[in-house]
Amino acid sequence: xxxxxxxxxxxxxxxxxxxxxxxxxxxxxxKRAREAFIKGILGDDLGEIVKSGVSGIPGVPIDVxxxxxxxxxxxxxxxxxxxxxxxxDIMELAGPVGKLAQQVxxxxxxxxxxDVPGALTAVAPQAVQNVIKATDMARTGAxxxxxxxxxxxxxxxxxxxxxLGFQPHDVAQVQExxxxxxxxxxxxxxxxxxxxxxxxxxxxLHDQDAIDKVKSELDxxxxxxxxxxxxxxxxxxxxxxxAMNQTKNERLAKxxxxxxxxxxxxxxxxQ
Length: 271
Known about the structure:
The protein contains 13 helices and 4 strands. With about 270 residues, the chain is mainly alpha-helical.
């Protein structure tokens, strides 16, 4: 019913494979490779059905794979993958209690800003949140993300599906594709940041062996990922080197907004 992407433990296996490939220097997505393999053999239409199950059948308005699939059975496997933010993986380890705490925190934050409707929405049961989301879709004609930005235009069938507690199929497709792309970009950005920081540190210490090691790692990455090459920005390294040569107080003052920078300097001078 949920297709290959809903098979038991397959998401957990994807995390383990992606983590292993990442350690070997590849920006690799097991899920993306699997889907490309299936569609390469069966074609786009049949491949989509095999991949997503009932949700992949043309004309089906809702995404059932997310509800019926058992892909993610081991919590926290995303921690295996090196990424900039592991918040969701940690919350996954916390289970329902963590989710509840997150909702209460969001509600308290909204309430502190005087946003009573937002606070009530944050702590509302999922069924109520679905109705609220469907109402927003009907009002705006679009499915919007958490920041209020449009994801995709919606119609009456999408609104009805959401009100009943199902994610509209076209919305799920856009969200899934965007997530996979964002994950790929984020991994590239993380690697570039790590290499830039390592190069700045090596140059700060005048360590030629470390400099050569970073260059070798950069060449290795670009050879293994020819479509996702990384370039180290020299201006970024110079900025990091300037920061490394400053005291902590100087860095704090420099990072402060221009309007309060003088106040920060005065406060730090009395420490």
